[in-house]
Amino acid sequence: MSTAGTSPYVLLEPPLWRSLLARAAIFRSARAALARLTMATEGMQAVQLVLIELDLAARKLADLDCDDDTAVETLAREWLAVITQTIDGKPAGPDERQLLIELQTLVSAASVDDPFGELFEAVQAQAEALYGAGWRRSRLSVAHMLSHPRNADLAADPYAVTAMTPWPPDAQSAEVELRIFCDKFGPAAYAAVPMVLTHEFVCHVPAHQDKAKNDSDFAEGFLDWAAYYFLDQWASKIDAQLAPAARQHAERLKAVLERRPEAPEVHARAIGHMAARCLIAWLERDRGLSKDESIARVARLAVQLNLVDRPLDVKDHFVGLLSWQDPPPPLAEALRSWVADPTEAERLLEVM
Amino acid sequence: MSTNAGIMAAALALQEFTLTQLAAYCSSEPAEISEVMESLRPLVERSGGNTAESPDGGRNSQFWHVAQSDALRELLAEESSRSGTSRELGGLRSPDSLAGLRLLRAEETLVDCAAEESADVRRVMAITAKNYLRQFVAEGADRLDWWALGAEEDEIGASISKDWVGKAPRLRVDLALATLTESEALGHNVPGDFLIETAAEVCELGVDIDRPRHRTLAERFFDLADQLTRRPFAGASRIEAPERLLSAVGWRRVRAQVEPDVDKAAQEAVSLLRWLVEKTDDLLAGSGDSDLYRFLGHLPDGRNRIAVYSDLLQIVPSQYDWQPEDEVVPGLLVEGLADSKAAVHLEQCANVLEASLAQTPFQSDSALIGLAAHVFQDLAARGALVDEEVLPRSNRARVDLLGLADVRARTTAPTVARPNQSGPADWLYRGEI
Predict the structure, then answer these.
(1) Where are the alpha helices (DSSP H) in B141-261?
(2) Which of A237, A267, A292 sits opposite B29 (nearest CB)?
(3) Per-residue pLDDT for B412 more than 80?
(4) Cβ of A284 under 8 Å from any chain B Cβ?
(5) Bridge partners, B16 (sequence order)
C-alpha cells in the first residue's frame, strides 16, 4: 500500500494513482456484476447516473492528500451513498434496482490491494506455464495517458486503456507498460485489462523477433488470435468472478479495434485472424481433426513460431500463405508433416 | 465445450506434455487434468523423466503422452457431441472486406520495404506482397490456385509480365513495385522499358486510388527507380559524375513534387526515366557526352540549338540571348536557342562544373549537389561582371539545390567575385553536407 504522496508506479503521479486505484478497487469489488453493469449503461439511466457520480467522486480524490486506504474508503463510502440514494429516491426498473442492490453489497467490501498488480501476476502465471523455458519474467509499470488511446468517443469506445512491451527487450527481464487514460477509466476498461495483458504476454514478452512492427501479420495478427484463444481458456483461472466480463469485453474490444478501416495494424490483425481460421478449417478438412483439436494445434503453432529465431517478415510471409482456403501445395505437404510431428514447426517457415 | 473435451483436445494438440503445460491450453487446473488423465489411460500414458523444476513435488511436472491418438479422437468426438457445439471462432469479416484487405496488405508491405535494411528480408517482403496480389486477383476470378498466377515470373530469367493482373493501374503498379523490390534486393537488372511503362501507369493511378495512397506508392516507385537506374560505368568517370549529378537532382526534384502534385511528379518521372534509359544505352554503346551542355546545331540566323542542364541558365547574364524550346526533362534538361555569347558562356560553365565533379572524392548525391551549388557561386561571380542580377538569381538556384541536398543554405551577400577563384570551397570539406 502506498502512503500519502507516493505511488507504486514511477510513471504515475501520486494524485493520479490515488484516483485510479480507487476507481479500479471499486470495479474489482463489483467484478461479479461487471458484465451486467457495463451492459446496463446502454439502457439503464439510473445506473448511468451512479457511474457518472463515481467518476466525479474519483476525480475529487486527486485533490485529497491521503494514503491508498483512505482513498479507497472515501470513494467507496461516497459511491455507496449515491447508490443508496438512487435506490431510495429514483425510479428504476426491477433489473436495474436489483443490480444497484447487488452493487451496494459488493462495493462495501472494496479492497485496497493493487488490482492491476493482481491481474498482472495472475495473467503472467498462465503465460509462464504456456511458454515454459521460453518465458521471460516481466514487471508491470502503469502510466497515465493524456487522452484516449484512439482519440475515440467513449460511448463508442470505452476502452481507455492500452499496453505496450518495449523493444528491444531488456536482457534480464521484460517490462509491460499499462497505459491508462485515468480520467475516463471506467468499468469496461477495467474488464478489458485481462485481454490487454494477455495480448502482451502471448504476443510480445517472450517473442524472438528482429524488430518492432506494429502491423505484423504474425505478431499482431496470428498471435493476437492465439491470445484471444488463451484468454478464453484462462479467464476463470485469472479471476473467476471477473471472467464473464473479461471475455465479453475482450470481444467488444476486438470489434472496436476493427473500426479503424484505414489502419495497417487493423489490416494485419484481420489477416492474422483469418489465417488462423483458414488453418483450422484446413486441419479439419484435410487431416480429419476435430475443431477443438485443430484450434488447440493452431494456438500451439503460434506459440512455437513466436520462439523461433527467424526474421519477423519471414513469419509474416508464412501467415500470408495461410490466409486462404487451402495452403499452396508445398506448404500443405509441410503442414501434413507438422501434424504428424508437431515439434517440426520451424520448417514451416522455410516454404517460400 | 466440456472440461473433458477441452483437456482431450489440448492433449491431442500437444501429444507430449506436463500437466502444467496442458493446463495452459485449457480452462482446467493441473489437479483436475491429472484426474482426467488417469481416467483416459491407456489412451494417454505417463512418460519417463521429470522436468528439473517441480515446485509441487514433481506431480505437475510429470510428462504424459498420447499413446493412442485415433482412439482419443473418437472419444473426443463422442464427448463433443454429448456436450454440445464446440467453441465459436468469432465473426468472420465479409468476403468483400477481405478481398480489399489483401490488396491493402500488399501495398503496406511494399511501402514497409523502404525501411528494411536487409536485402534478404526485403525479398521475402516482396514475395509476401506478390502473394497477396495473387490472392486478390484469384478471388476476383473465382480461382482457388492463386499460387499459379504469374508463377512463370518466379523463375530467374523469365520476362517480366503483368498480364495476369489485368489492366487496372493500381494492380499493375503494385505488381511492378513487388517485382522491382525483388530485383533491387537480388541485385538484378531491370529493363528500362519496364520502368518507363510503370512510371506511365503511376501517372494513371489517381483514378484508381485515394490521394495519400497514390503519393505513398508513387514515392516508393521513385525510390526504387532511382536505385535501379544508378549504373557504375568503369572507365567513364568523366561522364559518370555529371550523369550522377543530373540523376540525383532529377529524382530529388521528382520527389519534392509528390506532396504538392503527385500527378506532375509522375509525369516528370516518365521524362526522367526516358532520358536515363537513353543515356544508359549511349554509355553502354561507348558513345555519349556529358549532358551538362550539348551542342545540337547551328541555325541560319547564327543562333545555336543547344541542350543544357537547367540550373546553369540561372547564371547566364540577361544581356545574352536565350530562348527555351523544349523541356527534355522538366526542371533538369532543356533544349533551346542561344546566341554565341550565351552558348559560349554556358559551355564554359558546364566545363567548369564537369571538371569539379570529376575531381571531387565525395561521390554521394548530397556531396555532388553541394559541390554543384558551390560551383554556381563561383560561376555567378563571373557572370555578375556582366550582369549584377546574376548573383541573386544564382543564390535562389543555389538555395534550391541545397534544399534538394537537405542542407540549410547560407546565402551570401552579392559581391563581385575575383575571376581567378576556382575549386570547391573549404566548407564543403568541413562536413557541412
Answers:
(1) 169-186, 192-203, 211-228, 237-258
(2) A237
(3) no
(4) no
(5) B65
String of DSSP letters for A166-229: -SSPPSS-EEEEEEE-GGG--HHHHHHHHHHHHHIIIIITT---SS--TT-IIIIIIHHHHHHH
Nearest CA in chain B to A230: B25
Chain B nearest C-alpha distance from A105 (Å): 29
Bridging pattern class, strands B333-338 and B322-329: antiparallel
Q: Do B90 and A228 count as a contact with CB atoms less than 8 A apart?
A: yes
Residue B230 pLDDT grade (very low, low, confident, very high; cuts 50, 70, 90): confident
The complex scores an ipTM of: 0.93
Residue to mutate among A293, A323, A333, A344, with most B CBs inside 10 A, is A293
Q: Which whole-number Å values give the CA distances from A59 to A53, A62, A151, in the listed order?
A: 10, 6, 20
Q: Which helix (H) or strand (E) holds B76?
A: helix B69-83
| Rg of chain A on CA atoms, in Å | 22
Burial of residue A251 (CB within 10 Å: 0-12, 13-18, 19+) is: middle
| Yes or no, beta carbons of A254 and B90 under 8 Å apart | yes
pLDDT tens digits for range A84-120: 988 888 666 888 888 999 999 999 888 889 999 999 9
Q: Which amino acid is at B419?
A: P
Burial B141-171 (b: 16+ CB within 10 A, else e): eeeeebbebbeebeeeeeebebebbeebbbb
Q: What average pLDDT does the segment A143-171 reach? A: 90
Tell me if A190 sits within 8 A of A206, measured CB to CB.
no
Nearest CA in chain B to A299: B25
**Chain position carrying cell 521471460:** A136
Q: How far is CA B351 from CA A6, A193, B289, B364, in A?
A: 73, 70, 12, 21
- How far is C-alpha B400 from the geometric centre of its chain's CA atoms? 24
